[in-house]
Amino acid sequence: MVNVEWSMIMKKYRVGILGATGTVGQRFCQLLEDHPQFEISALAASERSVGKAYKEACAWKLSTPMPENVRKIEVQPISPPLDCDIVFSSLPGSVAREAEEVFARAGFPVISNSSCYRMEEDVPLIIPEVNHDHLGLIETQQAKRGFDEGFIVTNPNCAVVSFAPPLAALDRRFGVESAAITTLQAVSGAGYPGVASLDIADNVMPYIAGEEPKAETEAQKILGKLEGEAIEKADFAVSAQCFRVNVIDGHTASVRVNLRETAELEQINEAISSFPSLDLHSSPKDFMIVSEDPARPQPRLDRENGNGMSITVGRIFPDNISDYRFVSLSHNTLRGAAGAAVLNAELLIDKKLI
Amino acid sequence: MVNVEWSMIMKKYRVGILGATGTVGQRFCQLLEDHPQFEISALAASERSVGKAYKEACAWKLSTPMPENVRKIEVQPISPPLDCDIVFSSLPGSVAREAEEVFARAGFPVISNSSCYRMEEDVPLIIPEVNHDHLGLIETQQAKRGFDEGFIVTNPNCAVVSFAPPLAALDRRFGVESAAITTLQAVSGAGYPGVASLDIADNVMPYIAGEEPKAETEAQKILGKLEGEAIEKADFAVSAQCFRVNVIDGHTASVRVNLRETAELEQINEAISSFPSLDLHSSPKDFMIVSEDPARPQPRLDRENGNGMSITVGRIFPDNISDYRFVSLSHNTLRGAAGAAVLNAELLIDKKLI
Amino acid sequence: MVNVEWSMIMKKYRVGILGATGTVGQRFCQLLEDHPQFEISALAASERSVGKAYKEACAWKLSTPMPENVRKIEVQPISPPLDCDIVFSSLPGSVAREAEEVFARAGFPVISNSSCYRMEEDVPLIIPEVNHDHLGLIETQQAKRGFDEGFIVTNPNCAVVSFAPPLAALDRRFGVESAAITTLQAVSGAGYPGVASLDIADNVMPYIAGEEPKAETEAQKILGKLEGEAIEKADFAVSAQCFRVNVIDGHTASVRVNLRETAELEQINEAISSFPSLDLHSSPKDFMIVSEDPARPQPRLDRENGNGMSITVGRIFPDNISDYRFVSLSHNTLRGAAGAAVLNAELLIDKKLI
Amino acid sequence: MVNVEWSMIMKKYRVGILGATGTVGQRFCQLLEDHPQFEISALAASERSVGKAYKEACAWKLSTPMPENVRKIEVQPISPPLDCDIVFSSLPGSVAREAEEVFARAGFPVISNSSCYRMEEDVPLIIPEVNHDHLGLIETQQAKRGFDEGFIVTNPNCAVVSFAPPLAALDRRFGVESAAITTLQAVSGAGYPGVASLDIADNVMPYIAGEEPKAETEAQKILGKLEGEAIEKADFAVSAQCFRVNVIDGHTASVRVNLRETAELEQINEAISSFPSLDLHSSPKDFMIVSEDPARPQPRLDRENGNGMSITVGRIFPDNISDYRFVSLSHNTLRGAAGAAVLNAELLIDKKLI
Questions:
Q1: Which residues of chain C make contact with B301, given a CB cutoff of 8 A?
Q2: Which of A283, B230, C263, D260 could disulfide-pair with A278, CB 3.0 to 4.6 Å?
Q3: What tens digit of pLDDT does each residue of D22-40 get?
Q4: Domains defined for chain C, CATH in brackets
């Protein structure tokens, strides 16, 4: 039997990155360094970086070195055409709204980590293992917006990713009636320079601008159902209190959930841990890991699980007020941002939508 | 008009401290340095410190210098008699159970910060502003245990203190039906050496041994009613998920509350901020402070409010699932431990129970 | 004997603060809240704050509340006239150069914490206990620059303040031949937002822009001699490697020093600890404290010594290469910035130069 | 051409780990998980772990999961025989002295990370790239101590590893006359629980028990010359001031060096970056990396260079007092502890001493 690497027979998709110098843009470069399906062909960033080599334009902040293959790429302006097949966007909301539409209109599939289109009716908001069927919206989107071949697909806010997957598992099996979440979010979620050390050293910030509404509404959309040309949002209430804590990477969620059907503790464990994974390049072997250790999950010890793409859940207990409570954790810049977008792109290829 | 200091005409009560070398014991020394009603006359600690001058026995960890008046006191064993009128105890649970009873039986009022007696039926668990009438249990305790003049009075777990006061305010005015709390607790709550830096740097610990049950049951006792010779615990459910975060001092609580009566946001604010303070030496001018700043309370900026004895509340909002949510904060080693015990002692004097 | 408060008989000097909304500006407000000689009468800041009440313009970051007396003061532009007798400046270098000169020319004594004039030949760079005689430069300055009544007096870079005082003590007694310093500096030294948490959490920064040359040259000027109309800088070499560490307040310096005369360890201790303090309102009782504890000084435990105005020195030992080594610490935003400027102003009053 | 993995034709050496449950012991398990030359066959630890499965006995603190191959191994007492060919020891000094000798006497090669034998005359203290010829001491050791086949080989203190390699490069080329070092060391160097968070959060510790003498003497031995049956220690003075900072992994050293011969900056750079690497399994491609970025090395960004086995050097400048200064960094639990021992074992195999 001959075992031939996929990458040896397939031409790779050429990727352009919008917002390439930011923290999520850097993660894109890191994740795509040796990716079998993608290769970076274009980098775009704001005015002040344009014309410089990426190496000069970017204040690299990751602990692995800047990949050789991007160091000399000249940064281009954020406007089409870009020499690529797909566009990954990690633009800040302020510029993303216009730029992403322009690229989609110019025929590019836009895989966006920005928040601006997530809650638009005709834009898929995707966690591949949870709601890949929502990609059905793409056709609607193209029709409605007059896009020819291009489209916009988004991944959720990083806080949402830390708790939506176990809720999906419980909802599918027992029906979720309500979910109250308190998040303890890492500073990398704010990008760079982001959170000032004077604000977070020996401190907790009880407020992250705009985060609580995002966490509440995006979860309902992701767990909603595609009905015809629209998503019918999940009919359970979500409450989110969002805190910033002194952690570099890894969002932790304290979750209390009420279920529509009675469930034993063992069934809760099983529903979460057996939720199916996908077979994409960046999919972890275990989408969700349930830890039996009473002191887990912990961001520093569990964020890298599944190469930063697994969700780790622990401390599942019956609750005095809600039916169950648990703690859930995900890597906010991998599963919650750049890795999420890459996984979405892999899904789109798998579904032959690119 | 002659303005004479109270301390100039009154003899001070002489205080003995059990567990004097620990972090809470050190706080006792700090708080009593210039106290108008108390002076430290005896320090007791475990075997290994006995016979040494306090200065030698104690690895002082506070940012103010060790008070002159305790430096040379010789540390004594933890057993009566101690040359003092009142005993403050910050013993670890393992030794507190026996030692505190022995001291009470020997005639000493024992003001305890330990957890072991807090939930005993005949032991008052006091936050002076909230339930000073529970001191009525002392008589029952003395009768039941055959104590002559001595007794044990306790203050709550430090996590409870961060959220019980605003619940008390809401319960008194609107009736609380349930309260779901997620705490973000400081490392000083675990004493010294306590939390290893390897466990909390760039991390969150989702588990504090024994903390969640304490937080759930103590709140119900404090907000309960003294009926005859016992406390009838408050009839609302409490759920607590307790996290350790990388903060030195200051426990933050994310609270969701259901009320029995309808209340407007403005009324909630008012019920909390107008809850009466007491007129004891260590009482803050404002027992509870409601901050309008959307990014408060923060441990580093608010823990010292009212000399570390005020509770700071903020981010009070209607909630999607519960009636209201808010964030509440207290200084865990002041209002939540040593300061709480000192305030209890002041209350006992004020009530002529010492 | 009648003990009358100074403040009851003296009119207070009215102070204007340039750069009032920054971290050092906030410290000025804090330090002057109950100052017997000064009262704040004017606050000035950049364009974007002008016209707002200080309360609205300033993101207050200190752990004590914003003083009542400044909350409603309307922020004015950074240009004379300001309704005040003295100007304290904590402007960033970029605007300080022009603004401070304009104020001095307009007749104001300018007490500056900015770096731009520190090394100018005719500008005193003062640590009151060390080189108050350098104030003799003021006359030269006024003559040379054509200032009428105004002038500029500066305090040193916060890193310098952590090691220059013990060097001054040793230089005066034994002569310093060279001093090699490695600093471990707190994040507050960079102002707000200053250091990004992503740069300093679980990290050390080996570089602070412009800091090493400042540390090397300012120390030589402070320890220099006023000869006629100029300072003859100290004739010893200074080497400084400057690091940023994950500490909120308190700069630590690792110092190695060669002396011109032989000295016993005991003499070194004595020379430092007996260096005279001054009798100004903000002077600490002990200008320098020598700790015998092998694990001190530590920023968190020692930065508040002398209300943040003492220098704490420890670990004085003979060195394998240099004559002696020691560790020295000062509070960088108090003794090293705002407190330094306030002390300079007190000195100027004491010397009848204001 | 047939490319056959070394591990497929060679029997692996079977390794026993003494002190297997500690932080360095855990690193051994992690590093040997897929090692081509070694496989773990025995785990030994203190009384309290003996008889338990490693999985139960060990509080795993690394961010990668505990390897499958060790989870079920039963922990044995720290005494021979152990079912293995080589012993790796990370025992605390108190027990290492006796245990390591016993194992060596019983015929085991003991690769030790403990400090107790490092400075013994007949024990090699090895950084493979720097002084592998010191292995010549083994024969002397066996003769002197009456060991038959066993012996003890040690690796240096983790602080020393951060600065000795660049000193070796400079000494070899220009001759080092003196080296003054200030270290900023990570908390993991103290093991687990090690440093209390209350001691290091918002703080610097200026003292690490026993560290400064180790740093000063070990460097001289490593850079010394094997003359006959003994090491003649390097004839330059070393001064070390050692600080603990709030960093998880990665020791940073601030170094000032005087050279015997004149050297240009460019030559310094070149001498360090061109120092030869070895061709062992755990050797990094680049033993030392010289960074041109003025803000490097940083622990969080550079400690993983070369899989945690490279030394990163930066900020090389002429100094005002010494000839040159620079900043050097190494991963203290990889290159400075477990990785060092594994590399020593690989070296011993390569030299056919095992």
A1: 61-63
A2: A283
A3: 999 999 999 999 999 999 9
A4: 13-157+337-350 (3.40.50.720), 158-331 (3.30.360.10)
